[in-house]
Amino acid sequence: MTQMPIVNAVPSSALPTRALRPRDAASLVLLDRSRDTMRVLMGRRSKAHVFMPDLHVFPGGRRDPGDHRLPSMGDMHPAVLSRLQIATRAKHSTARLRAIAIAALRELHEEAHLAVGKPAETGRAPLAFLPDLTNLRYIARAITPPGLPRRFDTHFFALFADEAEIDPASVRDSQELEDLRWIDLNDISAVSVPDITAIILEELRSALEADISLPFDRPVPFFHTRRGRFVRELF
Q: Could you tell me the CA-to-CA distances from 141 to 12, 17, 19, 58, 196 in Å, in that order?
């Protein structure tokens, strides 16, 4: 157990006056294995953001209420759903867990213009595509520590670009994420990242060294604070 590092300090006037309840969120760690070195997709958050401004992160964001109602093709692998249920101690319904996974793919589309799934059959569909959850790996969970202007209970999913039939060259910047780029997983020195992102990347490197296929049923680390201390649990 180690002390939680303090990073990305914000002015005291910007800090919340009361404890904030973490909101459900999801991030998509998209991996390109078409080259000799594994690459990961990251983009820079705008300086205008209150939370983690001007840092490179994975595409992602909070779960929206409408994510429960979004149709999809291909459900999560049973082992992934099981890990999510264990992670949340069965407090969330299957529909809510599915909505968290859909949020990861919806955010990828909004922030990087990448669709994982087949095009929707009608222009009136809430999304331009039907999210395919089949190949998502659940790789980590992290809760933002108290004292920051935003708090999220974030579930991190990994996906290989080739499994999703994504062309790495088709990535485009958005208003949410600028400077989208594929970064060598073993050398992220070219960008600045939040501490938790660096931790997730280190966990991912270890997982890939153990098994390059990232098995669906691998144990998942959970990062949070307990009485002011940084805690890593495995489930």
A: 27, 26, 20, 14, 10
Residue whose C-alpha is closest to residue 104's, from 51, 147, 55, 141: 141
Instruction: Give the domain 29-234 fold.
Output: Nucleoside Triphosphate Pyrophosphohydrolase (3.90.79)
Q: Read off the pTM.
A: 0.89
- The answer to whether 139 and 204 are in contact (CB under 8 A) is yes
Domain boundaries along the sequence of the chain: 29-234
Neighbour count for residue 77 (Cβ, 10 Å)? 18
Q: pLDDT tens digits, residue range 160-207? A: 999 999 999 999 999 889 999 999 999 999 999 999 999 999 999 999
Separation of alpha carbons 143 and 157, rounded Å = 15
CB distance 30 to 159 below 8 Å? yes
User: Phi first, then psi: what are they for 13, rounded to 5°?
Assistant: -65, -20
